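User: Reviewer 2 asked us to show a designed sequence for the structure in our supplementary figure. I'm pasting the structure tokens here. Could you produce the per-position amino acids so we can include them in the response letter?
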């Protein structure tokens, strides 16, 4: 990990992958702010868990699709590490989708990432160091039936990260995308076992991912060991994309 302890902001940090990332960053000594939507017991429990062991962690209710909320969030957190885990999906074929659904997905998944980066960039530039990591999806690279909008929003993160890498690289800031395959979380465990089994068959390892697999990749990308890693896409999918 980085030898420096800095302010980290994790969106969508109350459960699943986001919570694993929050725990990992807090364990590394960073001052972590994470966001959630609604007053959730999961967020409160995570704060209690981590602060009880001496970590500096707080949660803030915030909507990543709202410009004012994003600006207020970054002004409060002053992040040098930005991890955008928040995301939404509405899975169905394009001829069944509404424009409002498209707007909702793009608003959180891609527009939110852009607004967060814009608001966080001044703090990173001033510090001469920063790390931006977007949680994409292998479906942003391969596409998937029923996920035209979701896949498009995740694909957009690649272009955004690569452009940020060029704009901010001279200031010591890196920007990368992690593309998970199937990750076992409370949300995905509620999905039909048929789809879970299909995802497992697609892997080369024969195993599905865990939130800690993503958190470990985040650990690397925010560390000084990854100072030359920028504008990259790291797939953590057990080889799903290859099949």
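Assistant: Here is a per-position design you can include in the supplement:
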């Amino acid at each position: 990990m980085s030898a420096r302890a800095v302010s980290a902001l994790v969106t969508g940090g109350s459960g699943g992958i986001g919570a694993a990332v929050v725990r990992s960053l807090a364990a590394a000594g960073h001052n972590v702010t994470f966001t959630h939507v609604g007053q959730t017991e999961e967020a409160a429990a995570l704060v209690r868990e981590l602060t009880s062991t001496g970590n500096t962690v707080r949660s803030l209710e915030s909507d990543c699709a709202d410009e004012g909320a994003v600006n207020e969030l970054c002004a409060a957190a002053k992040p040098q590490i930005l991890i955008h885990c928040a995301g939404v999906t509405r899975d169905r074929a394009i001829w069944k989708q509404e424009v409002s659904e498209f707007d909702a997905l793009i608003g959180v998944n891609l527009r939110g990432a852009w607004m967060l980066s814009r608001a966080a960039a001044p703090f990173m530039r001033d510090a001469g160091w920063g790390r931006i990591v977007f949680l994409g999806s292998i479906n942003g690279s391969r596409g998937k039936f029923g996920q035209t909008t979701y896949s498009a929003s995740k694909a957009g993160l690649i272009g955004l990260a690569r452009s940020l890498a060029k704009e901010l690289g001279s200031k010591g800031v890196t920007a990368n995308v992690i593309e998970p395959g199937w990750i076992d979380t409370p949300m995905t465990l509620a999905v039909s076992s048929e789809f879970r089994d299909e995802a497992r068959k697609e892997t080369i390892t024969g195993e599905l991912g865990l939130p800690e697999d993503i958190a470990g990749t985040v650990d690397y990308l925010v560390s000084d060991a990854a100072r030359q890693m920028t504008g990259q896409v790291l797939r953590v999918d057990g080889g799903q994309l290859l099949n």
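For the response letter, you might also mention the following. The domain at 7-242 is CATH 3.40.50.720 (Rossmann fold). The chain has a mean pLDDT of 94.
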